[in-house]
Amino acid sequence: MKISQAVHDFVQLAIKMETFALMDRVYLENRVLALIGEDSMQKISQTSSKDSLEILDILVDTARKNKKFETITQQEIFEAQLMDLLTPVPSQVNQTFHELAKEDSKQATNYFHNLGKQTNYIQTRAVKKNIHYLHETKYGEIEITINLSKPEKDPREIAKAKLIKENDYPICQLCMENEGYLGRMNHPDRSNHRIIRLNLNNEQWGFQYSPYAYFNEHSIILNTKHIPMKIDERTFRNLFAFVEQFPHYTVGSNADLPIVGGSILTHDHYQSGNHEFPMAKATIRKVIHLSDFPQIHAGILNWPMSVLRLQSEKKEDLVKASLFVLSKWKNYSDERVQIVAKTNDGIEHHTITPIVRRRNHLYEIDLVLRDNNVSDEHPDGIFHPHKEVQHIKQENIGLIEVMGLAILPPRLKTELREVENYLLENENTISPIHLSWAQEIKEKNEITSQNVRSIVEKNVGEKFLQVLSHAGVFKDTNEGHLSFERFIYFLNEANIK
Ligand SMILES: [Zn+2]
Predict the structure, then answer these.
(1) pTM
(2) C-alpha of residue 250 to centroid of ligand 1, in Å
(3) Which domains does the chain have, with CATH numbers?
């Protein structure tokens, strides 16, 4: 009875969502029965008030009993296949989205975001597992997240994954070919995945939400071709075109060089969302004047990384000014502060992480100056988290972290509990990588079982602030401010002569 009720509820929901019509009821009930491994259906007179995820749980339990899957990966593939039956086909989702967008793009993103949550494509329950808190700094509050949302794979599955044959379809996780893809041991399940087709400057792009959102309405805008990341005029134009269509979203691109870029450099994409990042709230430390662009408001941001903020009513002015700053930065060296645009091997080291948003009637772009050079002292990157902070964060500082939202690795959840035990002088297995940091915390604080968690969180926050300052090319010191001003002088030099 319980199973038939869940099948009935699932089908009623699919009809209510207009994924299927009333006439499809019997057909769809039979499709669901087949998937979960049941062979009969009782008559159900009433629809229950369960939501889609509660219904999913009952159906998944049944399928498990019927041995429809065994491993975690197989279960994920199964769940996506089931929820695919609840999700309208791509053409239908696109039609609804674009009809709503004609009225108000916020309604369109609300529709698409809610659809993702309802069909379990956006893994809201997994995202809730993340640890998240705010940390007060002299730049304002920053956000710290320990990412626990991605399910940990069974080690036996990981071992098996190494043995399976090479398969480059889809080429990567951002390719259009993921839409509806079943998934396999080393590629995520995407049966219930839908991509919105967007027009940005007369090119077609894909728009999708991130299944494991790092912030509200975390979304990805992807090139419909599998081509590498590239920061150029087209990037700036596309980012502005995006916020013109979606003024309630912030959008940015990861840099296009290793060390300072994100984890995927091989597929051109941007990231967006409906979230006010700590960097958006940062103030201007110094107003500057760009002599080639007198109509633009410009300033150096009060932020641990090196950021120029440009504002104008006209996006075209900002595209040109951004391109100007990028081309100047690509040729700028200041060896007093270890900034080298090109090394003797002919390799370029400079690029920008751009972030675009609307601010009332203005367009605004933050240009974060990046340098991926290495040295003997800092073989992982001169402007990358240094050795002394790598016990907390050693991964690249990408777009999201640049904006003041730390995404820290899952290992920290257990490691930091052991740091707490060490601080409380309980029995512990503190990792040697955290030991000297923990000793320092112990010396500086009166630690009790009541305050230990908040003291550790505060110190993690301070470490992340250090991480950001390592990634900054001009430091927030007197010397750093002077070197930043030399760069501004360089921007205006042609006009001074
Ligand atoms: Zn790709």
Answers:
(1) 0.96
(2) 23
(3) 2-68 (no CATH), 132-405+476-496 (3.30.428)
